[in-house]
Amino acid sequence: MNINATLIGEAIWFAVFIWITMKYVWPPLAKAMSDRQKLIADGLAAGERGKHELELAGKRSADALRDAKAKAAEIIAAAEKRGAQMVEEAKVAAKVEADKVVAAAKAEIAQQVEQARAELRGRVADLAVAGAEQILKREVDAKAHAEMLTALKQEL
Amino acid sequence: MASGEPLTSSAYIVHHLTNLTVGQGFWALHLDSLIVSGLLGLVAFVGMAMLARKATAGVPGRMQAFVEMLVSFIDQQVKDTYHGKSPLVTPMAITIFVWVLLMNAMDLIPVDFVPMLLGMAGVHFFKVVPTTDPNLTFGMSLSVFVVMIVMGFKVKGFGGFMHEVFTVPFGAKMAPVNLLFRLIEDIAKPISLSLRLFGNMYAGEMVFILIALLGIWQLPLALPWALFHILIITLQAFVFMMLTIVYLSMASESHG
């Protein structure tokens, strides 16, 4: 237990080491540790945010899919309706066209019948005139009369 | 062991407990304490400073992780106990713990190892454990004491400090008694701080020396004592640090 100047020397050493620790050891280490703490906290927060965003994106994509399906169904229904409508329209148009054609044909037929009739009428008149001529030519000849009649018959 | 001395048990013990001294009277210096404590401190703190300079906030290396673990453990102790703002307390606690731990750990070197090596080199006395030198423990505890008083003045101001000295714990009417109590309390602090460390390490070293005297029987005894001593080494370093923190927190918090 001999106290001497060593005490002062050790106190100086102590002060020197405290100074080194205070200036060069503790501040950079404390900074590194708090920086790392912040880094880790930020990373965890980012991860959490990413997870949340993924969840949201999943929800959004499901929504979009559902919308798309609904829209597609709508479009298909509209197309089917339109198709049916077009078929219906075509049917109507065809019917109209057919009626027109039929009417035209009927008119033509009627015209031709009329024409034929007129022609026949003309012919009958001619024949009557011709017959009368024959009759007038061979008035006395019964035989010839008969012959004429037969010829007339053949004509008819 | 120094050659030429009679090889008695007491001579052996005394030899092991004698410092390498230069000078006379008060101005004598224990070179062994100064050199060992200085070297250990320089290696530890300059090493830590170099490591801290390269410290990154990214993934730490093994050494950085180890040092960070140590200093954050000490910082946690400081935060739990000391609620002031002084930037001195944590570095001081780190210094105390690391330095005292290393100096105490010198006790685990077999007692004859270093004196024998140095004896061959012509140095005949060498106490390798600086904490068995009361000069070192008092040097540290008195430094702590000075910091404590200065911090008390700084935090509370001269008036507040004096008010606390004269009125705690019995009030202003019992001022002389309060002053006496305060003096005893404050003087007891550095003395108990240093003598606790010194006594523990001195006694531990003494037991090592006594075991070393047992001849062949030292073999089964030195190891268990060394293992047990690891506990004391760590505990004493921790106690010195913890009490320092407590004293400084008491100095910076008014308890009245």
TrEMBL record, chain A:
Membrane topology: Single-pass membrane protein
Cross-referenced Pfam families: ATP-synt_B
GO cellular component entries: endomembrane system; plasma membrane; proton-transporting ATP synthase complex
Residue intervals passing through the bilayer: 6-26
Subcellular location: Cell membrane; Endomembrane system
Source organism superkingdom: Bacteria
Known partners and oligomeric status: F-type ATPases have 2 components, F(1) - the catalytic core - and F(0) - the membrane proton channel. F(1) has five subunits: alpha(3), beta(3), gamma(1), delta(1), epsilon(1). F(0) has three main subunits: a(1), b(2) and c(10-14). The alpha and beta chains form an alternating ring which encloses part of the gamma chain. F(1) is attached to F(0) by a central stalk formed by the gamma and epsilon chains, while a peripheral stalk is formed by the delta and b chains.
Entry function: Component of the F(0) channel, it forms part of the peripheral stalk, linking F(1) to F(0). The b'-subunit is a diverged and duplicated form of b found in plants and photosynthetic bacteria. F(1)F(0) ATP synthase produces ATP from ADP in the presence of a proton or sodium gradient. F-type ATPases consist of two structural domains, F(1) containing the extramembraneous catalytic core and F(0) containing the membrane proton channel, linked together by a central stalk and a peripheral stalk. During catalysis, ATP synthesis in the catalytic domain of F(1) is coupled via a rotary mechanism of the central stalk subunits to proton translocation.
NCBIfam families with a match to the protein in the record: ATP_synt_b, PRK05759.1-2
The protein's name in its UniProt record: ATP synthase subunit b
